[in-house]
Amino acid sequence: MTTMTLQLDARQRAMLQEMGVHVWLPGTAFATVPADTPTELAEAVAQAPMRTAAAHVPVAAPAANAQAINAAALDWSALTDTVAACQACGLCAGRKSTTLLAPTVQQQDWMVVGDPPDEDEDRAGQPFVQTSGVLLDNMLKAVGASRGGAGAAGAYVTNVVKCRPPNGRIPQAAELAQCAGYLQREIALAQPKMIVAMGRFANQVLLSGQPELAAQPLGKLRGTVYQYQGVPVVVTYAPKVLLRAPADKGKAWADLCLAMDTLEAR
């Protein structure tokens, strides 16, 4: 991997301050922290109950579903309408609204995939809202991107599944696989050059090509560039986790630096 020379302007430094991150660069302060150093939250996630089947997400499984097959031919408008009307799995029973929003631009270099919608996202009908959305927007601004931007300055943001699971339960393997067909179409339409995976279930789908990784705690997955459908994937903490564990914000900035480095090397 080539060494990245990162120049931060005043706006980016301000955005990092909003994240609560001192201006650290790869090879300096937090580079001495091993990528697999456990935190209380990482340990809690690793110890949380997980269905064995969920550790092996069959990404190809949506082929058995007519909607998933047809998704490959949908444009943004048709994809949004199809997802909004989707009743292909049990997740639809818990939603007020779906969270897939078509971007206003044709192509965006960055793509952020988050975990299933929470109550706030379900109510708003879009991914990453409230305080976690503000933090994500600041993280994106720190790398020169935004949700409304295009090309290198653009970031398409989505959830790994588009409906809030009933009663906030965890999604099942078949449900993750069903929505993976929609996610694949989003990638094809957005044409990202970098995917940032934020959260346990986003990791399970995006790293499903290497099933042995799916059950790994997020802290052990950091620091490596993976691939999903030919697009580089970097794993990091979800904004809502960073809000609960501010000490991990420096690690999240390291992950974003890795993503920027990888983009520059493409």
Report on this structure.
By secondary structure, the protein is α/β, with parallel strands linked by helices. The protein has a single domain, classed as Uracil-DNA Glycosylase, subunit E, CATH 3.40.470. Helix content is 41%, strand content 12%. It has twelve helices and five strands. It has a five-stranded mixed beta sheet with strand order 2-1-3-5-4, with helices on both faces. The longest helix is centred in the last third of the chain and has 18 residues, at 173-190.
CATH superfamily: Uracil-DNA glycosylase-like domain
Q: Write down the overall geometry.
A: globular
CATH hierarchy, class: Alpha Beta
Largest sheet: 5 strands, mixed
Radius of gyration: 17 Å
* Separate helix tally: 12
Class inferred from helices and paired strands: alpha/beta
CATH fold name, please?
A: Uracil-DNA Glycosylase, subunit E
Strand content: 5-15%
The CATH architecture: 3-Layer(aba) Sandwich
Strands, count: 5
Instruction: Give the low-confidence spans.
Output: 1-5, 24-69
Strand line-up in the sheet with most strands: 2-1-3-5-4
Helix content: 40-55%
Distance between the termini: 10 Å
Overall tally of domains = 1
Average pLDDT works out at 80
SSE order, as H and E? HHHHEHHEHEHHHEEHH
Q: Secondary-structure map with pairings?
A:
Layout: H1 10-19, H2 40-47, H3 66-70, H4 76-85, E1 108-114, H5 119-124, H6 130-142, E2 151-159, H7 173-190, E3 194-198, H8 200-206, H9 211-214, H10 218-221, E4 225-228, E5 231-236, H11 239-244, H12 249-265
Parallel strand pairs: 1-2, 1-3, 3-5
Antiparallel strand pairs: 4-5
